[in-house]
Design a protein that fits this description.
about 140 residues, alpha+beta, Immunoglobulin-like, 2 domains, disordered N terminus
């Protein structure tokens, strides 16, 4: 069980960002609010995907905005769901870059996304295999 919890924590914290910009997805009465904190002195271009649980599925709220330097808990996006009601914030992904920095080509971006997807898939498969092994061990213990 500890392995599963640890692996889950790794997945949540694995979203790399180029800066120390943080974002929080908050849910209140069906409205999602995205608040940013940017301790950097310069403005960063950020994208946040708030993955929201809905009945029988998942909905995503996307916020793409420049975050001013020195911002603290600055609300840049709010969105009310127009479909099934959001029940909770499932997870979030934050990606920021320096808009004045070296541009990333579409090919580089696709290669990075593919590598990230493959890494996530491998971790998920490992977690599934670990879960199966744990269940087998529990079944053996129960039989004894």
């Amino acid at each position: 069980m500890r392995r599963i919890i640890f692996a889950g924590c790794l997945i949540v914290t694995a979203g790399p960002a180029l800066a120390d910009v943080t974002a929080i997805c908050k849910l209140d009465k069906g409205t999602v609010t995205v608040a940013f904190t940017n301790p950097e002195s310069k403005t960063m271009q950020c994208e946040v995907n708030c993955n929201m649980a809905i009945a029988n599925g998942l909905g995503t709220v996307v916020c793409v905005k420049p975050v001013p330097g020195g911002a603290k808990d600055l609300v840049l996006c709010t969105e009310k769901g127009d479909g099934p009601p959001y029940t909770r914030v499932k997870d979030q992904e934050v990606n920021c870059r320096d808009p004045e920095g070296t541009p990333v080509s579409p090919e580089e971006q696709k290669a990075k996304e593919k590598a990230d997807d493959e890494e996530s898939d491998a971790l998920i498969k490992k977690m599934q295999q670990d879960s199966i092994e744990m269940l087998k061990q529990m079944q053996k213990m129960k039989q004894q």
